[in-house]
Amino acid sequence: MKRPNAKFLAKVGLIGGGPTFIGTILGSLWISDVAYILFLSMAGGALVYVSMLMYNSGRKQTTNNVVMLGIFVGLCAGFVTDLIVTLGGA
Fold first, then answer.
1. How many domains is the chain partitioned into structurally?
2. pLDDT tens per residue, range 8-64
3. What secondary structure does DSSP assign to 14-58, as a single string?
4. Which domain range does residue 88 map to?
5. Contact predicate 41/33, CB 8 Å
6. 24-58 exposure pattern, b = at least 16 Cβ within 10 A, e = fewer
7. What is the pTM of this model?
8. In this structure, is residue 15 part of a structural domain?
């Protein structure tokens, strides 16, 4: 396996972290409820898209019961994490 060079890592870092950095700067300077809802909706859509890809990939590799158990455990872990954060006062 070939190790990635620094130029490739810089490009990937820019692609992955660039929009987050720019969004952080713009979000600290400009506030808009419409933009807030728009970007949260886009993030939710991206999560659904990636979740469906993972579901289809997992379904091809194992039985549906195992996939459903994994989804259930993941949802429970998310709810428990939210409960802990909420009880912690955040």
1. 1
2. 999 999 998 998 898 889 888 988 899 889 988 998 999 899 988 888 888 888 888
3. HHHHHHHHHHHHHHHH---HHHHHHHHHHHHHHHHHHHHHHHHHH
4. 31-90
5. no
6. eeeeeeeeeeeeeeeeeeeeeeeeeeeeeeeeeeb
7. 0.56
8. no
